[in-house]
Amino acid sequence: MSFDCKDTSSPHTSYLIAGLTFAGLFGVIFLLSMNNVVFGFPGAGGGIAGNKLRGGFLKIVFLEKPRAGTEHINQLVKECFESAHFKISWVKDMQNWLWNHFAMNAAMETEVLKRGSFPALMNHKDSFSNVGLSMREMIPVLKARGAKLDAISLLLTKIPPALLGTLFTKVIFAKGSLPRLFVEYNNSKAGFAVLEVVREAKKVGIPIPRLTTAFENTEHHKAIENPLLP
Predict the structure, then answer these.
(1) Confidence (pTM)
(2) 135: CB partners within 8 A, 6+ apart
């Protein structure tokens, strides 16, 4: 997702790119000048059902710290969101942050493929124990990418899986909380994040049996076995 930021003091268009990718950021914006782009991510979630959007925003936007040449764009984006009463959480290494976040999504989607839906993920006591195990399995893939584990990835991989279920269901995704509603309202088709990680793992020769097994019975599987098919 991208947004044009019109800077009346500059003849050029500036872009805020907000979204998840397991590809390198430079590959995502290869047609644009890096000096005209900043990367960010919203604190939001939900889904569309019956032509109705159900979800919400947290009052926070994750935004990469200025790079040389992007200071004016960062300031413009910061002012835009702050004028709407959002707070900015500055991210030093946006590429690393996105890799870790994408891996967490893949770990959750792996469990969704097993349980059948995002609400089912939230309502099963073993779900987040399994999410932690899937996250551990992806550590070599993340390291092969050049990523360093961030706080969330460390939490998911260092805390004993048996304790993760209680921590996530009772605290992080407590009933009635916005983060829980974001996931429960998510009715998107799971599998894309798993596809990207399985594809990358296969490319570098790293076995990830938990993700591969969950992925084998999905429609995305043919994209791995027959990469030339649409």
Answers:
(1) 0.84
(2) 103, 104, 107, 153, 156, 157
Tell me: do 137 and 216 sit in the same domain.
yes
Q: What is the pLDDT of residues 98-109, one digit of tens each?
A: 999 999 999 999
70-73: long-range pairs with CB below 8 Å, 24+: 70/34, 70/35, 70/37, 70/38, 72/7, 72/9, 72/10, 72/14, 73/5, 73/7, 73/14, 73/16, 73/36, 73/37, 73/38
**Which of 92, 123, 158 is where one domain is finished?**
92
Note whether 148 and 190 are same-domain residues. yes
Q: What is the chain's length? A: 230
Q: What per-residue confidence (pLDDT) applies to 215?
A: 81
- Given pLDDT bands bounded at 50, 70 and 90, which one contains residue 30? low
**C-beta atoms surrounding 125 within 10 Å:** 9
Find the mean pLDDT for residues 77-94: 94
Do 59 and 136 belong together in one domain?
Answer: no
